[in-house]
Amino acid sequence: MEADVNPEPVAPRSRAVASVPLAHALQLDLEVSLKGRILKIGAVLGSETFARSGTFPLGDALDQLTAFAAGANCVLGHHLIGHDLPKLREICPVHPVLRLPVIDTLLLSPIAFPENPYHRLVKEYKLVRESVNDPVADAAQAAVLFADEFRALDGLRQTEPGLFDLLHFLLATPGDEEELSARGMAMVFEALGGRKPSEERALEFCGEWFRRHGCQSVPVEASLARSRERRLALAYTVAWLRVAGSNSVLPAWVRWEHPITGTLIRQLREIPCAREDCGYCRRVHDAREQLRAFFGHDDFRPHPPNAAGGSLQRDIIEAGLRDESLLAVLPTGAGKSLCYQLPALVRNFRRGVLTLVISPLQALMKDQVDGLVRRTGTPFAAALHGLLTPPERGDILRRVRLGDVALLYVSPEQLRNRSFRDAIAAREVGCWVF
Q1: E-strand spans in 255-344?
Q2: Cis before residue 343, ω within 30 degrees of 0?
Q3: Are 408 and 354 in contact (CB under 8 A)?
Q4: What is the pLDDT of residues 40-84, one digit of tens each?
């Protein structure tokens, strides 16, 4: 691993890329059994390494880890806050490592890399390991990940300084819980030359950012800045909004552990307001406008008509855009496919959610995918069925996980398949179509 240096003094925003502050970071990884017993310990500090595995006296090993970490100014690792440090606290509540500021690369990944995949080394909670069950290698890999996150934040500092300052406030403001994490984040932003704004200025910019990427009517409540949990959820929200509308998805663990994030994104992107000056709602929640944007048509089919003589096709699509459950019965040639394809594409644009279409006809699925790609120019549709080769199937499942598929046709037997269920578990399903 390349040598790193201490944090630099605060400097103007126009300066060169900051140096990664790792020289005095204790890089830590623990291997823990299902019953909570520490099986292996791996640590890196500067050019020195610490490893314990196999049968070893745990108390002696933790004392030796204390001596090894004596010169550390922070502890760095992947999933430290939710996994390694709580396990260490259960076994040794007074261990000195537990008093160090914390830099958790899992916490930073969706913020530094909101586009998907948010980092080549990360798979759900874990690092993609270069050595199986080698905590020293995993600790070093976390440092590689942090170096990339640090450089990404430095790029954000230069391209979106207002967002950089907002994230500085949200991540580095201490609270009743996770104060050590806030101190670790403060070290990161200070090394980047950050200047933490006041709460008032942070919320003011947050409102500007909301209006730039979503509904004009969603307020920024001061309560969002008053707890560590809410500040983290707000940080994940504003970071994701930077890439909203592309083929990016919010990581599943963020949705599970920080549900306020999903609530904020739904309010900003999915619930239309009545304001005439809200360009986002007037554009994204207008069925005809979205028909033009995705398919290039000026209007919906007039036949069959609805009870008032208007387009029944439009009624169905507008209900789909409102995320309503519905049963649509239309004759052949009346444009049934558009009734679920257009809402699926709009849902994906608004929030990155997946629409699943269950169909028993494999030839029809292929025709539907080819036709949608041809008509819209978007590669966001795919079909999963039993006639695919293993490489073809693997590629589609990879695209589903990464957010590259908005509309997935699947044959019913796929619902029994473990790899399929694992893939869609990484996505938020916005609609089922039968």
Answers
A1: none
A2: no
A3: yes
A4: 999 999 999 999 998 899 999 999 999 999 999 999 999 999 999
